[in-house]
């Protein structure tokens, strides 16, 4: 294996351990406290001030029909992988400058990992 490929693989594995170890139950509590005023995780696809986050993991950004996304998010070409969600939840404006979401971010890596685990399994 080429050295750069091995380094990239190690960097990827080291950069995402918290995501793999998220606690969905704790993430649900965090979601309720920080996110549920604006977002739902309803299988019915209910939008609020923000789009539904049901099945968000793996989905392309700005893909919920009928929701008015910011031009920057529409143009971002992001796919909501756990890693991209982690970056976004750290500081939404850093990943999508001029986005319209008012949320400032979750500074604790474990809190982000927990929310991502919840979004992967909101039931």
Low-pLDDT sequence parts: 1-18
Task: Determine the oligomeric state from the structure.
Answer: single chain
**Strand residue content:** under 5%
Element-level helix/strand string:
HHHHHHH
Separation, N- and C-terminal Cα atoms: 40 Å
Largest sheet report: none
Rg computed from alpha carbons, rounded to a whole number of angstroms: 15 Å
Shape: globular
Structural class of the secondary elements? mainly alpha
- The number of E-state strands comes to 0
Q: In percent, how helical is the residue content?
A: 40-55%
Distinctive features:
mainly alpha, 47% helix, 123 residues, single chain, 7 helices
Could you characterize the architecture of this molecule?
There is one protein chain. With 123 residues, this protein is mostly helical. The chain contains 7 helices and no strands. It has helices at residues 3-15, 17-20, 24-34, 71-75, 82-90, 92-95, 109-120. Helix 3 packs across helix 7 and helix 5 (82-90) crosses helix 7 (109-120). The model is unreliable at 1-18 (pLDDT under 50).
List the helices and strands and how they pair.
Elements: H1 3-15, H2 17-20, H3 24-34, H4 71-75, H5 82-90, H6 92-95, H7 109-120
Helix pairs in contact: 3-7, 5-7
Give a quick precis of the structure.
By secondary structure, the chain is mainly α. It has seven helices and no strands.
């Amino acid at each position: 294996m080429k050295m750069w490929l091995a380094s990239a693989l190690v960097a990827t594995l080291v950069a995402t351990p918290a995501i793999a170890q998220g606690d969905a139950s704790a993430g649900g509590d965090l979601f309720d406290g920080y996110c549920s005023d604006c977002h739902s995780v309803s299988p019915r696809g209910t939008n609020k001030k923000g789009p539904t986050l049901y099945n968000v993991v793996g989905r392309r950004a700005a893909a919920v029909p009928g929701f008015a996304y910011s031009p920057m998010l529409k143009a971002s070409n992001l796919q909501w992988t756990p890693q991209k969600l982690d970056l976004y939840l750290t500081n939404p404006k850093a990943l999508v400058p001029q986005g319209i979401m008012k949320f400032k971010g979750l500074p604790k890596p474990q809190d982000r990992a927990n929310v991502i685990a919840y979004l992967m399994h909101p039931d």
